[in-house]
Amino acid sequence: MALEFVALRHLYGRDHLDQVLATFGLILFSRRGAADLGPAGLALPLPAWLTVPVQIIPGVYYPAYRCRSSSRHSRLPALLYIVVMRTRLGMLIRAGAPTANDRRARINIKLLFTLVFGLGAALAGLAGLISTILTVQIGMGENILILAFVIIVIGGIGSIRGRVPGRDSSSA
Question: Cα–Cα distance between 60 and 53 in angstroms, integer?
Fold first, then answer.
């Protein structure tokens, strides 16, 4: 949230592409800093009680950790949907982008953006729970990041149809 307060908050009035490029630059900067500070990779062992396979149906076994993780994380999209679509906070988030430049709105939009940024960072940290399945390493999401950047540039940041593979972005 401090990163949003110090670096990104000043870009909200600018074009979306400026925000994407600044975020990409911050990712590259922090990647280099993390590489200078820590090890290249870190494997975290599972607790012994989670290494036992669980029988899903007769003859089919699945790792206990993945069963527990799947059951826990499958509820997260539903919870986010409820928060965004059914609560006052969700209403403020949905209304936040259009009212960012509207001085008549009685919403502390800067605080709202900081909270949403913090929520996104917390969800990214939650996604780090996959670290017991994969080795956590610096830059492990860069392949996806490059593809996402290309999709944003070609498809357009405001066009959902432009992001669908096989669609011509000019028809969106």
Answer: 9
What span, in angstroms and rounded, lies between the C-alpha atoms of 112 and 89?
A: 9
Contacts of 9-12 with C-beta under 8 Å, sequence gap 24+, read: 9/110, 9/113, 9/114, 12/100, 12/113
CA 38 to chain CA mean position, Å: 23
Tens digits of per-residue pLDDT, 44-63?
677 788 788 888 889 988 88
| Beta-sheet pairing, 41-42 with 60-63 | unpaired
d(CA 87, CA 124): 22
Q: What is the rounded CA–CA span in Å between residue 69 and residue 128?
A: 12
Neighbouring C-beta atoms of residue 80, cutoff 10 Å:
13
- Whole-number mean pLDDT of the chain? 75
Ramachandran assignment for 55, one of left (phi > 0), alpha (psi -120 to 50 degrees), beta (any other): beta
Calpha distance 172→162 (Å, rounded): 5
Distance (Å) of CA 111 to CA 81, 114, 156 = 21, 5, 27
Q: What is the DSSP letter of 47?
A: P
